[in-house]
Structures are given as structure tokens and as C-alpha cells.
Specification:
Elements (H helix, E strand, L loop, with lengths): L2 H22 L1 E2 L12 H14 L8 E6 L4 H12 L9 E7 L8 E3 L4 E4 L2 E4 L2 H10 L3 E3 L19 H8 L3 E7 L4 H14 L5 E6 L4 E3 L1 H16 L3 H9 L8 H13 L2 E11 H4 L6 E11 L15 H21 L19 E7 L2 E8 L6 H14 L15 E8 L3 E2 L12 E6 L2 E5 L2 H6 L3 H11 L13 E5 L1 E5 L15
Parallel strand pairs: 1-5, 2-9, 3-8, 3-9, 4-7
Antiparallel strand pairs: 2-12, 4-8, 5-6, 10-12, 11-12, 13-14, 13-15, 15-20, 16-19, 17-18, 17-19
């Protein structure tokens, strides 16, 4: 054979040999004897003990679970509440979605080997399903990134889920995914890919995540309650944003959001908290704890946008909020500095809520800025956005000292965000909208279409326009529409806006 023919043959042989080696590669147990016992009998006794003690509520038609991934002595009792729901159920495939603690990479990696090993045996990888996921999006790749050890460290968050699964299910096909990027777009791509490839009830999704890390016990409990409440309220957009901003902490916020997005497309929109504890409860030291939660996601739940805002602000709180807003605007306009942190007496004003402050002068809009996600306690949110509306709304020149007595204030306290599945359920006058496509995003409050006399279609178009998108972008499958409601607070005695009012439609 001449050299011209020999070289391609050698390259083909090497490629085939590499694929064969990859197909036979088994990822060994890397954290056995550290996060859980390396002895199989001891491991079985420990898991069975956790499962026997777990008494989760009955949840039917489970599509996904959230389970913690710390050492079993710390989080095994909480994880067992999730896995106890799988006992006796016929499951053929399990997708485990994990964050990457070891290395960063800009995609979700589905393991490119043949199996994951634990002291209880091997869990074979569903290579065909993995390949189908990778074909769905460039943000998903079949790769060893995140799975293979780096610098002597190996990812634990995926591996620790497997002995529980092996104990409650026995044999199953595994789809092991490590997310190197937890951005909204990566979560969306993975969620849609999973939903597009799951065709029956024999597949279960597992999102691996701990909650807050290394805070005093009471602080951790407060933070974790907010994270779990966002999951329960089905507000995965705020979950991601607040975690990215380090307001909340869940190292697997991306896996949780991806599982929720997939579940939503599969008809499951009900999240139920099964158990919560932290290392202060399980290990005793409450000075710096790590939080753990178990959640079941099941079919059912309210598929539509929020029905209506729950009034959270009474008369006393309303007066205090308007006082904070006015003092904040006066401070930034007169003194060019932010008002010191307010210390309201009402508990409702310490709850994290999204809110907007709208300023008008003689009924005309003079500024409007807000936080759509519950980033800060309501009192601090109103303090911040009132100041920004006065001096940082790029549509208007900054408010002057002479205008301060002329300003009329309106405060909108927002509900959680929920993705719209059917635009016919958007009610003009009840729902505000967030329209998001990639990095572009626009928001309009519920009262805006009433003031402008818009119908639903115009409302959607103008929210797209606010996002810098084409007006018909709301029809684009790449676009997500989120709805929310608002408790709109107005100052008593303030002049009403000049805009025309229209009936809800």
C-alpha cells in the first residue's frame, strides 16, 4: 500500500480505536470513603437506614426531584425524602444534572464514557439519549469535561446521587450531565432538549444541589426558605437571577432551573418541599452551616400565569413605603447620595419583593425603574428604585430640586414571575409582562396597557419593543414570556394620572 492510501487508513483506524476506548471507559467512584462509605455492605445499611426514616408526603406522577449532594452524614437524611418517592416505581432512565465544582466550561457536558461506577456496581450510560441531547443544542456536548478529575479533584455532586438510585431502582440507564455554565440560556437549552427527548413516564430527572453555604444557622435558614419558596412558586427566573447575584445561594440553581423548564414542557408544574435541614441540624455545629433541601416536581399545579396579587401591604405599611420613597428621592436630588438603609417596623417591608416606583409630574410620566426579581427586602428595594427613577431613567433628564414638590408617586409590589404557556390567559389590567429572548429583555407593568388603552396583542408587541425586539417577537419560539401581578399603591390625595383608563380585556 502506498503512503497516500496508508495515511487515511491509519487515521480511520485511530479514530475507531479512540471511539471504542471511549465507549468502554468507566468513570470510577471518586469520592467513596469521603462522601459515603466505600464498603458496599456499610453503604447499603446507611442508605436503607435513611430511607426507613424518611416519611415524605405522598406525591403522584413525579417527573423530577431535587436532592442535596453533601456527605451522607450531613445530607443523606434529606436526600432520602426525595428518593423514597421512587421506591417501587418502574424507571428505565434517570437524568442526573449536576453543577460543576471542579472546572468551568461553557456548555453542559453529557458523559462520553460507558458507565459510572460506585461500590454498588456500574450505572450504564444511555449513549443514544446523550447523543440526541447534544444534537439539540450547541450548548450541550458529549464530553468528559466536568466528569473526569482535574488537578486531583473529581466532581462529587453527580456521583453521590447514584448509590441512592441504585438502591431504590436497581437497574436503570443513566444520563449524567454536568453543567459548566448555569446561565438562563444554558438552562433553557438543556431543559428544552430534555423535554424534546423524554417521550414517556419511565424517565426521571434529578437536579443535584445544596443550598446556602457557611452562614450562621439562623441566617442560613432565612436564605434557604427564600430559595425553596421560589421553587415552590415556580419562579425559576428569579431563582437563577438571585443566585447569580449572590442574594441567595444554591450551587445547583442551574440544574434545578433546567429540570423545572423540562418538567414544565412535560406537563409538570407543581413543586413540593419534602424536607429541609442544614448541617447545623445534622452535625451540630451551627456557626457555619450548609443548607439541604429535597423537592418533588410532579404533574399538575396551576399551568397559567398568576391569578392575582395577594395584598401584602396594609395602610400603615403603605404610608411607610411612600415616606421611604420620598426621602430617597429627596436625598439623591438634594444631596446626591443614597438614603441610609431604612429600618421599617413592619415585617412585610422586610420581605424580599420585586417592586417598581413610578414618578409623575402633573400626570405625565417622569421616571419609572424597578427590580423585577425579589433581590432585596421591600423597603430597600423601594429606597433604591425610587432614587434610580428620579436620576437614572435614561428616557428623562434627572429630577431637579424645584420639581420635588410636584412629584406624584406610585409603587407597584410584584408577585413572582411565571412563564406564560398560553397567551389567551394574559389578562390586560391584571398581568404585567416580561419578555425575554437571549440577552434582550423588556418589562411592562399591569397598569401600562390600561393607561394606554391597549389590547392584549398590542401589549405583547409593546413589551417586545421595550426589549429592543421586533414587535412580533412574542411569536418566536426563542422568546419566553413571563407574567406577574402587582399590588399597585397610590398616594392618597395625589393628583390622578391623565392617561385614559380602559376596562380589562
Amino acid at each position: 500500500m502506498n503512503r497516500r492510501r496508508l495515511l487515511p487508513a491509519l487515521l480511520l483506524f485511530c479514530a475507531q480505536a479512540a471511539r471504542q476506548a471511549q465507549s468502554q471507559r468507566v468513570r470510577p467512584a471518586a469520592v467513596a470513603d469521603a462522601f459515603y462509605p466505600a464498603d458496599a455492605k456499610e453503604l447499603v445499611r446507611m442508605i436503607d437506614g435513611f430511607l426507613a426514616a424518611a416519611k415524605p408526603p405522598e406525591v403522584k406522577e413525579v417527573v423530577a426531584l431535587v436532592a442535596p449532594h453533601a456527605g451522607y452524614l450531613y445530607s443523606g437524611g434529606v436526600a432520602a425524602h426525595a428518593y423514597a418517592l421512587l421506591k417501587g416505581r418502574k424507571v428505565e432512565r434517570v437524568v442526573v444534572i449536576s453543577p460543576s465544582h471542579v472546572e468551568a466550561f461553557p456548555f453542559s457536558a453529557v458523559y462520553d464514557g460507558a458507565a459510572y461506577a460506585t461500590p454498588l456496581g456500574q450505572a450504564p450510560v444511555d449513549s443514544a439519549f446523550a447523543a440526541a441531547l447534544a444534537k439539540s443544542s450547541r450548548r450541550i456536548q458529549v464530553s468528559g469535561r466536568g466528569h473526569n478529575p482535574v488537578g486531583g479533584r473529581a466532581e462529587h455532586a453527580l456521583e453521590v446521587q447514584l448509590p441512592f438510585l441504585q438502591r431504590v431502582l436497581g437497574q436503570f440507564k443513566l444520563v449524567p450531565i454536568v453543567m459548566g455554565d448555569q446561565s438562563y440560556e444554558s438552562c433553557r437549552a438543556l431543559g428544552l432538549a430534555l423535554a424534546g427527548n423524554v417521550h414517556d413516564g419511565s424517565t426521571v430527572l434529578i437536579a443535584s444541589s445544596d443550598l446556602s453555604h457557611y452562614h450562621p444557622y439562623e441566617d442560613a435558614v432565612k436564605m434557604d426558605r427564600k430559595t425553596l419558596r421560589a421553587i415552590e412558586e415556580w419562579d425559576y427566573l428569579s431563582l437563577l437571577r438571585n443566585t447569580e447575584a449572590r442574594v441567595w445561594e444554591a450551587c445547583g440553581a442551574g440544574p434545578i432551573a433546567a429540570a423545572m423548564i423540562a418538567s414544565e414542557r412535560l406537563g409538570a408544574r407543581q413543586a413540593r418541599i419534602l424536607a429541609y435541614a442544614n448541617s447545623g441540624d445534622t452535625a451540630g455545629d451551627r456557626r457555619q452551616v450548609v443548607g439541604y433541601g429535597a423537592v418533588a416536581i410532579s404533574r399538575g399545579g396551576n399551568p397559567g400565569p398568576p391569578a392575582g396579587a395577594k395584598p401584602v401591604i396594609g395602610e400603615a405599611e403603605r404610608k411607610e413605603l411612600f415616606a421611604i420613597a420620598r426621602r430617597s428621592v429627596e436625598s439623591v436630588v438634594r444631596n446626591r447620595k443614597m438614603l441610609a438603609d431604612p429600618t421599617p417596623a413592619a415585617e412585610a417591608l422586610w420581605q424580599e419583593r420585586g417592586a417598581f416606583v413610578t414618578l409623575r409630574e402633573h400626570g405625565d410620566l417622569r421616571g419609572c425603574i424597578g427590580y423585577s426579581a425579589p433581590i432585596k427586602p421591600l423597603a430597600l428595594t423601594v429606597r433604591d428604585v425610587a432614587a434610580y427613577a428620579a436620576v437614572n431613567d435614561g428616557r428623562f433628564r434627572p429630577v431637579s430640586r424645584e420639581e420635588l414638590p410636584l412629584l406624584e408617586y406610585e409603587i407597584s409590589v410584584l408577585s413572582p414571575l411565571r412563564r406564560v404557556l398560553n397567551i389567551e390567559e394574559i389578562v390586560v389590567g391584571r398581568h404585567g409582562l416580561v419578555i425575554k429572548q437571549g440577552e434582550r429583555e423588556g418589562l411592562l407593568l399591569p397598569q401600562v396597557p390600561l393607561e394606554q388603552g391597549w389590547d392584549r396583542k398590542t401589549f405583547l408587541e409593546m413589551t417586545c419593543d421595550k426589549a429592543g425586539l421586533l414587535k412580533d417577537a412574542w411569536k418566536d419560539p426563542r422568546t419566553d414570556i413571563f407574567a406577574f401581578t402587582a399590588q399597585v399603591l397610590e398616594e392618597h390625595g395625589a393628583a390622578p394620572p391623565r392617561a385614559t383608563q380602559a376596562k380589562p380585556r
